[in-house]
Design goal:
- This protein folds into 2 domains: about 5-75 and about 255-314, FAD/NAD(P)-binding domain (3-Layer(bba) Sandwich), CATH 3.50.50.60; about 75-90 and about 120-175 and about 190-250, Cholesterol Oxidase, domain 2.
- Helix content is about 30%, strand content about 20%.
- Strand 1 and strand 2 (about 10-20) form a beta hairpin.
- The longest helix is centred in the middle third of the chain and has 20 residues, at about 195-215.
- It is α+β, with helices and mostly antiparallel strands and about 325 residues long.
- It has helices at about 35-45, 50-55, 90-95, 100-110, 195-215, 220, 235-245, 295-314, and strands spanning about 5, 10-20, 20-25, 30-35, 50, 65, 75-80, 80-85, 125, 140-145, 160-165, 175, 190, 225-230, 250, 280.
- The structure holds flavin-adenine dinucleotide.
- Flavin-adenine dinucleotide binds near residues 183 and 252.
């Protein structure tokens, strides 16, 4: 989809491109925007809904000055510490050898099981970075592999595992801004991860908690764990954050860029209708005012179900 067209603040049709050819589809009732936390604010902005000063600079005609469009971007960032282990085989060595790969392939072909049937993580858990908190603010995803860069580097050539940890209640906020009026140009995504002191503290506390579990509990002793990354010599909180940031990774949970509410930064109402505009709703993860303290897919499906009810009842 390229953009939404309006007549006197009423959404009436959408333009979409097939190759370079432009088509317009008229709406009989209303238009539902569900392009996700990156795509939805991008389409609103290219359609003239957003912070007017920024949009005017790109030569766009302003339909509604809503400065919250694209703001309030939140995500879960995970740190990926790596622990070398002994007296147990992790998948690193198996996947790194041609013979190991062959065995993995055969196991899948003949038994339909093994590493090729694994999900992204084998173990998940929640914890509090500080016991005085009312609810957990850390999420662990644990994998029997380790690498320098997910998807971009070989696995390490030693036995190791990766107990990742993410702050699931981040206070840092990023933003999405279009760079041109052409929806085919990717918008600028500024994540601003770890930009608050609180987020850096929680991130460091998450690593300290993992250290406690892996290095100090009896359960792990027989595996003789050794912290390969960030490295046990790094003790200062800010230094831990700095070291772990080189290997940090999104868990792909962007939300919040068309947030629901009634304050100055809100984009949609509690009926998911875009403020100041008729016949236009946003229904996707972008409407979350705050990120959920866990994975975002099921909550997005709930938003969609609730939105569908609202459409049917309107
Ligand atoms: C790699 C990855 C792994 C994930 N793993 C998990 C997980 O394990 N558990 C979990 O709970 N969540 C997971 N998530 C997050 C989850 O997928 C999202 O929270 C959820 O899909 C958000 O739904 P949405 O409808 O807001 O956006 P999306 O699912 O992103 O849907 C938006 C759609 O709009 C389309 N679109 C965007 N712009 C345009 C345009 N201009 N024109 C036409 N179409 C457009 C996109 O192609 C997309 O199909 C993962 C995400 C990723 C990327």
């Amino acid at each position: 989809m390229q953009k939404i067209n309006f007549e006197n603040k009423k959404a009436v049709s959408v333009n979409y491109l097939k190759g370079d050819k432009k088509f317009t589809v008229k709406a009989n009732k209303e238009i539902i925007l569900s392009a996700g936390s990156i795509g939805s604010p991008q389409i609103l902005q290219t359609s003239g809904i957003g912070e007017s000063s920024k949009l005017k600079n790109l030569g766009l005609e302003i339909v509604n000055d809503l400065k919250g469009v694209g703001k309030n971007l939140q995500d879960h960032l995970m740190f990926r510490p790596v622990y070398k282990v002994k007296n147990i085989k992790t998948l690193n060595k198996k996947i790194n050898s041609v013979f190991g790969k062959l065995l993995i392939g055969l196991e899948y072909v003949f038994a339909r099981r093994g590493p090729m049937t694994m999900g992204a993580s084998q173990l998940c858990g929640f914890a509090k970075s500080d016991e005085n908190r009312e609810t957990p603010n850390l999420q662990f995803h644990i994998q029997p592999i380790s690498t320098d860069k997910l998807g971009g580097a070989n696995l390490h050539d030693f036995n190791a595992f990766t107990p990742t940890v993410a702050n699931i209640r981040p206070t840092s906020r990023g933003e999405i801004n279009i760079i041109s009026s052409d929806s085919r140009d990717n918008p600028k995504i500024k994540m601003n991860y770890l930009s608050t002191e609180e987020d850096r503290k929680v991130a460091a506390d998450g690593i300290k908690l993992i250290r406690k579990i892996v290095m100090e509990t009896d359960e792990f002793k027989k595996y003789e764990p050794e912290e390969f990354r960030p490295g046990a010599h790094i003790q200062d909180g800010e230094e831990i954050v700095k070291a772990c940031s080189h290997y940090a990774q999104t868990i792909f949970h962007p939300v919040g860029t068309c947030k629901m509410g009634n304050d100055n930064d809100a984009v949609v109402s509690d009926e998911l209708k875009v403020h100041g505009i008729n016949n236009l709703r946003v229904i996707d993860a972008s409407i979350m005012p705050n990120i959920t303290s866990g994975n975002t897919n099921a909550p997005t499906i709930m938003i969609a179900e609730k939105g569908a009810d609202m459409i049917l009842n309107s």
